[in-house]
Design a protein that fits this description.
Blueprint: H1 17-28, E1 34-38, E2 43-48, E3 54-59, H2 68-78, H3 85-89, H4 103-115, H5 120-141, E4 148-151, H6 158-168, E5 172-173, H7 181-190
Parallel strand pairs: 1-4, 4-5
Antiparallel strand pairs: 1-2, 2-3
Helix pairs in contact: 1-7, 2-4, 2-5, 5-6
């Protein structure tokens, strides 16, 4: 599935990552009617029915500012591990407001803030708030219907999840291992259907 689907030479079938995410979320959270998949390359908001069938979806534009890649870029600027980005951001007392929605300009702005002596946690919180607003906007485009589950590597960032929850005004369902939800859905899809 997804961007790596073509890299598996022995694969006999390619599946839509959107369908696979919906199936995985439906297996873990049958009550969910919306899924948000925060990946490194893009973010997807998916509306699904009670059987896990996709009824609508939206994908972020091909820009790093709408995906987990933006956080990776800023973590590098801050010289912190990606794994500590979320917890660091939750310590912020004065989150930075980013004036741009572009990852390239956001990186430049973060570098400027570091040089100015702004606390790392305030920069991290600002990034999470900016990305959280973009993700919430994407979910609203498909008329998000709660309960809503979140998955993908970005779901490991508690600061980002808190920002999305604040923007949407709801609590998100979070699986124990958010990075494997789409793979679970692919496995479910691969099971032969009875004739």
């Amino acid at each position: 599935t997804g961007v790596g689907a073509g890299n598996v030479g022995f694969a006999s079938n390619k599946m839509s990552d959107i369908v696979c995410t919906a199936r995985g979320i439906n297996r873990l959270f049958p009550e969910a009617r919306t899924a948000i998949d925060i990946g490194a390359q893009s973010t997807r908001a998916i509306k699904l029915d009670s059987r896990g069938m996709v009824t609508d979806f939206a994908v972020s534009e091909k820009c790093a500012a709408g995906s987990g890649r933006f956080i990776e870029v800023i973590a590098n600027v801050l010289r912190i591990d990606l794994e500590e980005f979320g917890s660091l951001s939750l310590k912020s007392k004065n989150p930075v407001t980013f004036s741009t929605g572009c990852a390239v300009f956001g990186e430049s702005e973060a570098i400027t803030r570091v040089v100015e002596g702004v606390a790392k946690e305030d920069i991290a919180a600002g990034v999470n708030l900016a990305l959280g607003a973009k993700i919430a906007s994407l979910a609203k485009r498909i008329r998000l219907q709660p309960p809503c589950a979140v998955c993908g590597g970005g779901a490991l960032n508690r600061g980002l999840i808190a920002a999305v929850e604040s923007e949407l005004g709801i609590r998100l369902l979070l699986p124990a291992e958010p990075r494997t939800v789409t793979a679970l859905g692919a496995a479910i899809q691969a099971v032969p259907k009875p004739a």
